[in-house]
Amino acid sequence: MRVHTNRSTLLSWRRTARTLALSLHEAFLPYPDDVLAMVDRRDPAAWARLQALPRAATPPRLTTAGAVHDLAPLWQEEVSRVKAVAPFTTEALVGWGRWPGRAPRRSLRLGSCQAGPPEVVRIHPVLDHASVPDWVVGFVLYHELLHLRFPPIQQGRRRIVHPKSFRQAERRHPRFHDAEAWERDSITGLLGRVRRHVQERKLRRTARGQ
Known about the structure:
The chain has 210 residues and is of the alpha/beta class. The chain has 2 domains: 56 residues, no CATH class; 139 residues, 2-Layer Sandwich (Zincin-like).
């Protein structure tokens, strides 16, 4: 068994005829029943409980200051804007996300929202660029904040990520149409920038290994 603090791969295992090689986050150690339920039966309830543990035990290290954009003032502005549209209370953390390890193909998530505690909003680092206006980053923050206010709903077998209330609130942003047009016109360039970053990182790793 290997114990780690890696937040991207919380639990993994490999079976052989005689052994079970287990790698797990340190927060899982007091909960062997849930770990075994996940390993033996892939129990979704056990996995949901386990996933919440590292977030509660170790708040993520986030930075708001980027090379071009500072998320902190944009965050405060968009929090105020969301509260004017749909009042709520949030203690969410915000910061720049990490560059992906694999190059995307056709789509790109410019922001992500993680349920709490604590709630966490991350913005894709591809937006921390001089070609990206402040208001675009602000709109992505607004979009992710709406996910906290209007979480996905389950209708039968369907999981609706953007319910009607979400869409209505999103359209009340003053740059809604501008943001849609900007993303539509810029997505090819954003994807290319991410692919180049991933490729350059692979080349650097290869060079260090030589």
